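Predict structure. Chain length: 312.
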Amino acid sequence: MRVFLFMSICSCMLSFSQPLLVDQGELIFSGVAGKRSEPRGFTLWNQSDEALEGLTLKLTGRNADCFQTLEKSPVSLKPNGCITADLVFVPPKGRLGVLKAECQVVNSAGEIKTSVALAGLSAIGVEGDREPTLQRIVETLGLQLDVGWNSLHSDTGPTLQGDEIRQQRFRKASAGDVKLEPVARYSPNFLLPTAALEAPELHPIGTLGLKTRTRAEHNALFPSLASGTTCFDPGNAVFGIFTSSPSHVAYTEDVWNSRLEPKHVKHAVRIFPVQRRAGKPVKNVFLICFEEAKNGDYQDYVFLLCNVVPEE
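Prediction complete.
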């Protein structure tokens, strides 16, 4: 199972009611209204020495009809056994935006033993004006921050928007690697290399992939890597983040956009400190939002940059 739910800022195991454990408290999907998404799943562990019989997966909440379980009910768990429960996002035509529900695990007596929150981002279609806004992307990801606008398009000038910070470079915050995790991509379909360290010296990290037969990787949350990794170690260096599309390289630093890519947007990236839904800041984690063209949507490529502090 592909695990993608903010492992850099969330714990990987949540306990709701012993002896039943679930590996994540939330599943996040994206897709197009009227179409079915790829499956996403969570894992249940029976931590006891006795079998758990008659467990049922129950979808509840305002948008419960926009999700489907693929696991046959009832579910049985052997002692110290585990099972992966898969779901899909199936927003009906015309149902757009952020859609939320809950998947409850209920025993034979009707008691809720644990639950997993569900969120799905439903778009009109793929590319262009059919894409979701950056603010809706942020809301679906469970982040509480104001990007500064609610429409698809915005200004590309250097004036800070919403909760945006002015710093454009970083240092590693503590021991271990820095992580650059792709969390959203809404751009044309091409391979997209990412890199770090001081421009114009670029140190490759990973490459975002092309769409597949079953998934529009270039218009989705949590796009896959075609190659490379999400982690790197900049040592003590001050660094920025860069993406390389077929048309140009975009830099977090305005100075390098002006010098090296004068035909493109100078303020190519907006950077926001990360806060979870309750408004609690997540230490040393930032949302990095790239503008590929000139329409100011800033959701062409969106990353979580973890284990860093901004550099003046």
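Summary: Residues 1-17 have pLDDT under 50 and may be disordered.
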